[in-house]
């Protein structure tokens, strides 16, 4: 991969992510700011965190009363988020599941599905995975997809030709049934990010927030339809 500066890719996705998480310090991580922005005003329900990584999002949601299924391809990541939840007295609210989302997807229905920086250097049909996430929403449920919209100086992928899917491209790629879904947000906000060495840079997030309609026949003047 031209411009790739991260760990070696020849071991395959499971070994790659497992080695990565084993080499990371098992410390508490803050929640992603776009999740906080969207979810801090929501009433708690049942959430699915795709690619839970260090567990910051799952722990934050659980601390606000959500019941969370935290999913990652790395067994180490899943074990750590469950352990951290237990340490904080949130063990009954966080369930970890190991999934390679190229081959399996969690069961159940959810009020919120959180997919933060759901990128991988390996082949993965992201549209299919995110469509499965959308279809797992309960009526009125939300799917939040936050992608990188630019590369930071410390990013692994420094390929100058790298393409970052826009929110509209992500929405189109879901290929969902017309009339059942409402786009609440599709924008590209910027934020000041901090790298692993403390360096700072302004980066762009590509944010898509869609809702499963409670009444598919109802018209909503405040948001777009995925079939539009």
Automatic annotation (TrEMBL):
It holds the Pfam family Methyltransf_11. One of its GO terms (molecular function) is S-adenosylmethionine-dependent methyltransferase activity. The keyword Heme does not apply. SUPFAM superfamilies: S-adenosyl-L-methionine-dependent methyltransferases. Keywords: Methyltransferase, Transferase. One of its GO terms (biological process) is methylation. Residues 48-144 form the Methyltransferase type domain. InterPro entries: Methyltransf_11 (IPR013216), Methyltransf_Superfamily (IPR050508), SAM-dependent_MTases_sf (IPR029063). CDD domains: AdoMet_MTases. This is Class I SAM-dependent methyltransferase. The lineage of its organism: Bacteria, Bacillati, Actinomycetota, Actinomycetes, Micromonosporales.
């Amino acid at each position: 991969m031209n411009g790739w500066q991260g760990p070696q890719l020849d071991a395959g996705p499971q070994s790659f992510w497992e080695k990565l998480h084993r080499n990371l310090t098992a410390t508490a991580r803050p929640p992603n700011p776009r999740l906080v922005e969207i979810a801090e005003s929501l009433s708690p329900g049942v959430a699915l965190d795709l690619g839970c990584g260090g567990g910051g999002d799952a722990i934050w949601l659980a601390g606000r009363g959500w019941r969370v299924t935290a999913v990652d391809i790395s067994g180490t990541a899943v074990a750590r988020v469950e352990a951290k939840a237990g340490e904080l007295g949130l063990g009954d609210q966080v369930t970890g599941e190991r999934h390679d989302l190229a081959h399996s997807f969690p069961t159940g229905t959810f009020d919120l599905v959180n997919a933060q920086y759901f990128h991988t250097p390996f082949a993965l049909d992201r549209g299919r995975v995110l469509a499965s996430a959308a279809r797992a929403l309960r009526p009125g449920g939300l799917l939040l997809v936050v992608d990188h919209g630019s590369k930071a100086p410390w990013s692994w992928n420094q390929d100058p030709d790298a393409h970052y899917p826009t929110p509209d491209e992500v929405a189109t790629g879901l290929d969902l049934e017309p009339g059942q879904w409402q786009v609440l947000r599709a924008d590209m906000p910027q934020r000041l990010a901090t790298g692993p060495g403390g360096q700072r840079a302004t980066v762009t997030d590509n944010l898509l927030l869609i809702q499963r309609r409670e009444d598919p026949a109802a018209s909503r003047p405040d948001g777009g339809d995925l079939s539009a």
